[in-house]
Amino acid sequence: MHGYSRLGNGGATGRSVTATTTPSPPSSPRLRHSRGSGKSNSSPGAGFAGGGGGGRGGGEKQNLVERLMFVIIKVVLKRRGLLLLAPLLYISGMVLYMGSLNFDVNLKNGGVVVRKRAAPGTVYRSPKVFQKLWPYMEAERNHSNNALMTAWNPKWHQGWKPCGISNNSEGELSETNGFLIIEANGGLNQQRLSICDAVAVAGLLNATLVIPIFHLNSVWRDSSKFGEIFDEDIFTHALKNNVKVVRELPSDILEHFDNNISSIVNLRVKAWSSTTYYLQKVLPKLRQMRAVRIAPFSNRLAHAVPPNIQGLRCLANFEALQFSEPIRMLAEKMVDRMIKNSSQSGGKYVSVHLRFETDMVAFSCCEYDGGEEEKREMDIARESAWRGKFRRRGRVIRPGANRVDGKCPLTPLEVGMMLRGMGFDNTTSVYVAAGNIYKAEKYMAPLKQMFPRLETKDTIATAEELAPFKGHSSRLAALDYTVCLHSEVFVTTQGGNFPHFLMGHRRYLYGGHAKTIKPDKRKLALIFDKPSIRWEVFKRQMQDMLHHSDVKGSELRKPSGSLYTFPMPDCMCKPAEATHKDGGS
């Protein structure tokens, strides 16, 4: 059956066509005239007429593309050899496309291997960065402008002075409401935190404080008692006008509990409890039973407390808690030796709190450059110290995410590169405060290469001098604490109680400025992931980081902050304020 074309012109109305043999009908005269005259047609249906163009708009572009494709196909068909390029064109296109989606495409064994590219900052590439930058560091050795001499800008030092220390008159303390016994757990500075808060609570409750008991921690494994780490006489004397301190419970009180401290009721106090809670819940029990015990006593008092109670914290931490005489004597010798070794820089030295011990690396769940052997060792370490914790259902370990989020401990290599980039040259004396470094021979080598004048407690003190402290991690930490306290620059690399207390103590001693480099580890993760980075760019980034630490050196305590890290304004004030405050005390 035949049909008529709805697009045929009047001269062809009597002509029949079939679907298979008849060519397409010609365009209408009106459309042909429009194309020939170069005038565009504004009729809504013109653009659909017989596939022809509606002026010089989209139809012409479509025709151009069609013609181009026709030419290409025609050339390819005529020259069949070009078909051999098709696989290459396909692979090239795939490489470009995958590259835009963070995929790496490689040819291997005649096939294509596609791997997702690691996000920036998620992989440990610091050794490659060091390999690139080391020649430039060598070129600047023995530099005349050592950053050690100019690290801290005086304009950021606001001249804060110690004040606000609670100090009652020389009169007798009022009759006690009872005896407070606390157990301090954790390492050196966790114990320090518990002791200072216990002094504050004892003052709040008008209680007599029994010298704190140190709980043997399964991680620190230090059996030292209070008097073996801190000086009991100095502690008691410094607090005598504010809080009464005794070494042990009186015999009549102890007999009341069958001579067994464990029989004394242990009050389960929630973390960060307010002063109101202690006055309403603990004080009545204290008066009733004449002695109460709080164990554990870590973080059991809120940061925000009345000024007089904050003053007791200041007094305890910065004045009353002094290390025992054996620790003080050796620590002073170590500081003197560091100053003597730093004669080329005016007796100034850098101290670094390096947290790259096996347990810290394992706990961080970060990966370095040790491959399968490192993974196996870290799995064993995690299971040994935190049995089952990292294998719980739903627990996912993401080393790359940890690194880019700034949660990975800095390696000795990274610390060294950072300091050299900041301008500390190879003549700088560096003291490293640390435990047993993971694979120390491998990881410490580049740091020693960058800073030949590197010391630790094992090199600055003799084996005989350290012998009484071996096996006692808190006493060894006290030595590190003292040497770091008196350095010109302190570098913290991983957080924790040690640097937090040290920064606060340094602010207390150095006019309110911590003189501490606190690196932005998120930025460092990205910078250390650029093996092609230029030395000038690297230095600029590191010096900006040093400047930021300088500006932040004199921060005031925020409502949620700890005065052990930020002693202003609770424990310190400006000179004019100090005169007024001291005159009124």
TrEMBL record:
Residues 1-58 are annotated as: Disordered. It comes from the Eukaryota. Keywords: Carbohydrate metabolism, Fucose metabolism, Glycosyltransferase, Membrane, Transferase, Transmembrane, Transmembrane helix. One of its GO terms (molecular function) is glycosyltransferase activity. Residues 47-57 have a biased composition (Gly residues). The keyword Glycosyltransferase applies. GO terms for biological process: fucose metabolic process. This is O-fucosyltransferase family protein. The chain crosses the membrane at residues 82-99. Belongs to the glycosyltransferase GT106 family.
